[in-house]
Amino acid sequence: MRLILKAFTVILLMSLALPASAEKYRDTSAPMAVEGALDLNRYLGKWYEIARFPNRFERGCVGVTAEYSMRPDGDVRVLNTCREGALNGKVTIADGSARVEAPGRLSVTFVPWLPFARGDYWVLYVAPDYSLAVVGNPKGTTGWILARTRQISAKQRALAETILSNNGYDIKQLEDVLQK
Length: 180
Prior knowledge:
The chain has helices spanning 2-21, 40-43, 154-166; strands at 45-52, 61-70, 76-84, 91-102, 105-109, 119-126, 132-136, 143-147, 175-176. It is α+β, with helices and mostly antiparallel strands. Mean pLDDT is 89; it is low at 1-21.
């Protein structure tokens, strides 16, 4: 029993330390503007990850998608799919949930039994036709460009990068995500 408690304590302390050591990609003194008129029902569905700021939980992932749907309890189901290393690589799925905290501001967890393991997921921009979205968090440790299609135009990419820059992000650190 002591060994189990000790192992749990080590894991807990490591999980608390990881977010503090995460890379920061934005100037946190810059204000963040969220999509206050986000229509959650239109946001639901499948999104392709076009670009992201590097993070430990997506290391080596390509062909990444995120699929959002409503859960019976009113939260949003978050189903993230990663192909490890190559488009034909092993598929890994992370199943989580998101809670709306305020307009355009959600919190996401993939570990529901740890109440402090929620991450901010702020929608900074969504195109009027809901074909493109830009997401970030106030700490600047994550950020994504998402689209309903596997590729976007140069004009859409420039717009997404402008949104990130205007929210204090260093877009030079963005990495493209290989899609089919």
